[in-house]
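Ex. 9. Protein: Acyl-CoA reductase.
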Amino acid sequence: MALPERINAFIKLGDFLRQFSNDIVEKNTNVEYNEVFFDGFKHQIKLAEEANGWFTGANIKFALKSWADSLTSSNLEKWLSPYDIKNNDSKRVAIIMAGNIPLVGFHDFLSVLITGHEVLVKQSSNDKHLLPYLAKYLEYVAPEFKGRIKFTEDKLEGFDAVIATGSDNTARYFEYYFKAHPSIIRKNRNSVAVLSGNETQEELIALSEDIFRYFGLGCRNVSKIFVPEGYNFDAFFEGFYHWHPIIDIAKYANNYDYNKAVYLMSEFDMLENGFFMIKEDESYASPIATLFYEHYKDRDALKASLEENKDKIQCIVSKGFVPQEIPFGATQKPNLWDYADSVDSVEFLLSI
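Predicted structure tokens for Acyl-CoA reductase:
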């Protein structure tokens, strides 16, 4: 199966996903095999919602839209153009996926197949309904994928390389267990934003998307902000107030109530508005319904501190602060070439 055929299969998958990425799901008669898969995928979305309270319909649709927008001819060709992808010997690559946001492991899945390898997937129990169904769709539009995609709930065996994502604790286990294999092992990371105090209301509204999308559960979600001394949080709170209906979601509300009670009993200083809290804290990882903040005096000193802690940081959201910054509102819209932990997975897969 040549590279252009693999690319074409994922373009067709993007066309299929595009039907489910809007508020109103609408069937496109031009999409291949819709008569086989359309209604079934609607059912899988419903199952995913029922199985995981964090996977709301809005968040699933957001994830599907992100992938539909990425899986276009221009994006796939731009992503792959720097690489020399030949029809080398195929290896079996195991992927251990996290389950914090819908289809969080799809980029690894795509990367393995697009480089010509076989994939062995071990999913999280929190996100097990969507990807196997999409894999079946791929096998229909490109029958050559049959036998090259396998899912397992058992112990991983018979693989040549591994890509594993988990917590800092599980990463230590992964590093020991997979020490004899080429691997990418990902640990905990969080994203931060650096504010100057001169942000427009539109920029603060955009930042709220980086904070609240997926309830803040993704490594690309902003969990901490750095603000100049004397920063006034009034405009900041106004910028994300439109997210207040989030408190009507039971799992979020339970976390908000619990964390608020902990802070109050511990007599921690915090600011809150009835559905969200901000707390001064040096940590990067904040609990659900909470955002940490820290004041800074000197921009250069802050840059040095962030560089020193770069292994803890996935994204830096800012405007004119560092070269690799992400614009406000864009953390959950990565390009195919925006690699997790800045580790080029395609280059890794071509080297095994």
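Check your answer against this statement. The chain has twelve helices and eleven strands.
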